[in-house]
Design a protein that fits this description.
The chain has 179 residues and is α/β, with parallel strands linked by helices. The chain is built from seven helices and seven strands. The chain has a seven-stranded parallel β-sheet, sandwiched between helices. Helix 2 links the parallel strand 2 and strand 3. Helix 1 runs parallel beside helix 2. The chain starts with a strand and ends with a helix.
């Protein structure tokens, strides 16, 4: 299975986020899956890639050409795909993935999350979308979505399409349901 990981590119984040991302990468590789990601070598992206590599797993990095500068992209991707635009990058991340995990991240991660989750709620894909809620980083977002349901802005059925885990090791249970 190809698993897309969205997450922060910044290294100036909580160590717990980086540690969790590393374990996420390890879990993906140990299960025999391939990680698909934005190809960054820093932050959550870099930590998860290092976790995959530590377990001998495969990485598919997808990035726009303007990111192809020293110190930005992971050099040890099994496959690196360069695109002209961020829009193309997001399309390929979606096309090449069987599942999406949203790890701690900022505005770019939120953009990716809302697009892929919206497409899921509109039945444009049937792929699982999972929030990795490390140390409650997504608690405010989860409350917002629950408030949307309470206010009639989103159905409970749509809300239930989003899975939430606190630890990467919980993915094994989700993967079992996908077999």
């Amino acid at each position: 299975m190809h698993i897309c990981v969205y997450g922060a590119s910044s290294d100036t984040i909580k160590t717990a986020y980086l540690d969790s991302a590393y374990r996420l990468g390890q879990q993906i590789a140990k299960a025999g899956h391939t990680m698909v990601f934005g190809a960054g070598c820093t932050g959550v992206m870099g930590a998860s890639a290092r976790g995959v590599q530590a377990e001998g797993g495969k990485l598919i990095g997808i990035a726009p050409t303007f990111f192809h500068t020293p110190g930005i992209l992971e050099e040890n991707c099994t496959e690196l795909i360069l695109t002209e635009t961020m829009r193309e990058r997001k399309d390929l991340l979606e096309q090449k993935s069987d599942m999406f995990i949203v790890a701690p991240g900022g505005i770019g991660t939120m953009d990716e999350f809302f697009e892929i989750f919206t497409l899921r709620t509109l039945n444009r894909h049937q792929k699982p979308v999972v929030l990795l809620n490390t140390e409650g980083c997504w608690d405010a977002l989860i409350r917002l979505l629950d408030d949307f349901v309470a206010g009639g802005l989103m159905s409970g059925e749509c809300r239930n399409l989003l899975q939430v885990i606190r630890e990467p090791e919980e993915l094994a249970e989700i993967w079992k349901t996908m077999e």
